[in-house]
Design goal:
Layout lengths: L4 H4 L5 E2 L6 H5 L16 H11 L5 E4 L6 H8 L3 E6 L2 H16 L6 E5 L5 H4 L7 E6 L10 E3 L10 E3 L15 H16 L2 E11 L2 E3 L2 E3 L1 H11 L2 E10 L2 E3 L2 E3 L4 H12 L9 E9 L8
Parallel strand pairs: 1-11, 2-3, 2-5, 3-4, 5-8
Antiparallel strand pairs: 6-7, 8-14, 9-10, 11-14, 12-13
Helix pairs in contact: 3-4, 4-5, 7-8
Length: 292
Amino acid sequence: MNQDTSTTSALASVLATGQQPSRLQRQGRYTPESMRHPGKMLPAIAATVIKAFTRAGDLVIDPLCGIGTTLVEAIHLGRDAAGVEYEPDFVHLTLGNLLHAHNQGATGTPQLACGDARNIATIYQALHGKAALVLTSPPYGSHTHGHIRSGRDNGGGKIVKRNHRYSTDRGNLAHQPLPGLMDGFGRILAASATLLQPGGVIAVTIRPIRVKGELIDLPGQVIDTAHQHGLVLVGRHVALLAGLRDGGLVNRASFFQMLETRRARERGIPACATAHEDLLLFLPAAMLGGRS
């Protein structure tokens, strides 16, 4: 693979994006109601990528915008933003976050559509060739760890999970088995690429997951899927979820991540709690003269 050095040099290999826990990164910047989304992008990751690949007034697009983290960070940085979200409930949460951002002085102009991101090229037909950056992350499945109340929180009772479902709508990509999810995500990436201006970048944040104890290499699958849809990997970076203190990592793993790690180790699997996400950077092959 031939890498575009002008793209990869815009970021360090390791990004210190986990210096604050997620809840502190969002505190006061996002509405309390939007915290119930089960799979939010870390705001520091979004802001770091947007700063690296765009300038004030540029357009940033997120085809799977959830509660609007990419959009909120973009308009706070003086960029314009456009997003698509399948779930009407999350669209309302995004609208609340965007209004809150403007009330806090954000100057960028956002657009938001409720729909299927596989149709983003049609939804935002007027934006073809205008985006400097597409920044997104696929769903990790119909269920996530969500939020919990442990015995410590509820007087010694059972662990209670909440906010752990993306959707009950079977049309949501999150309900697809992994091959179907990757196929749909590939179509979304290909459609989003038509919205890029010359030199525009597609950035995907993704991490491996465990399914019934088996480690699934989602970053690798996203790379293969993107390649099948005409995109070339031009950069791979580490976006820390853990903090950096005195030369070591500060664990930010959730209760369930730690529980799964402990259970895996008890079965003899050398598992570790997730400390980072992969940040994958892609360019359309046509922009590189077809190189791969």
